[in-house]
Amino acid sequence: MLAKRIIPCLDVHQGRVVKGVNFLNLRDAGDPVDVAARYEAEGADELVFLDITASHEDRDIILDVVERTSEVCFMPLTVGGGIRNLEDIRRLLSAGCDKVSINSAAVKDPEFVQEAALRFGSQCIVVNIDPKRVPVEGATIPEVREDLRVQPRPAPNGEGEVYWDVHINGGRVPTGLDAVAWALEVERLGAGEIVLTSMDADGTKDGYDLEITKAVADAVKIPVVASGGAGHPSHLCDAVTEGGASAALAASIFHYGEFTIGETKQFMADRDVPVRMH
Asked: Is 64 a catalytic residue?
C-alpha cells in the first residue's frame, strides 16, 4: 500500500500565514517562508500554499512569496489562489512550485482544467473543492448543468436534508454544484488530484467530514486529499482509513505547535497506517 501523505497547509493573507474557523476570523500564524522551513525540517511529505483572498480580490498571487518559499522547501509544493489562465500556471511553475491548485477558475470555466492538464500534465493540476452542507429547505440554488446539480442528502443530525454545495471565492459564493458530481467532472477533465476542504469542519478541530470525504474518494480514481477539521493525529488517521483519502492536510494543529509532523506520523504508524518516517 502507498504511504499516506501528511501535508501542512499555509493559508496566506497579505503575505502572512493565517488560520480561521469556517473560513472566517483569521489569526496570524507567522511568516510563510519560516513556517515552510520548519515543516521541511519536520519531515512533511508535501506543502500546500494557498493565497486565500487572491480570487476574491481579483488579483495575482504573490509570486515573490512563492519564490522565497520554494527556496527553503524541497518537498513537493502546491500553490493555489488567483489562478485564472495558463500563463498564471506557467509563472507559478517557473517560481518553483510543483503543482497548482485551481478552484474558482475551474468552476467558472471547466475547460480550463482540461487545457491546463493538456499543457502541463495532469500530475501538476490539482482542483480544490470546498463543499458546504446547505439545508434543502429554503435554499436558493444557482442554475448549473443538470448532471452536476446538487442532490438532496440526509442531514448528519437526521433532521431534514442538505445539499453538498461547492463554494468558490474563498467560500463566499455557492455554485449549485454537487461535491461528488463535480469531483467526477474534474477527474474527467484531467485533474490529477483533488483537495477536498469541508467548509463546515474547517478550523473546528473536531475532525474531518468523513462522510463527504469517503463519498468523493470512493467515486474517483485520482488521489483525494482530506482537508478541514484536524485537531488531533487521530483525525488524520481517520481521514485516510475511514475516509479513504490518500493524504490528510492540516493547518492549526501544526502551526501553533499542538502536534509536530513527526508525532502525527508516529501516531499513525503505531496504528498500522503506512507513512513515510523522516
From this structure: no
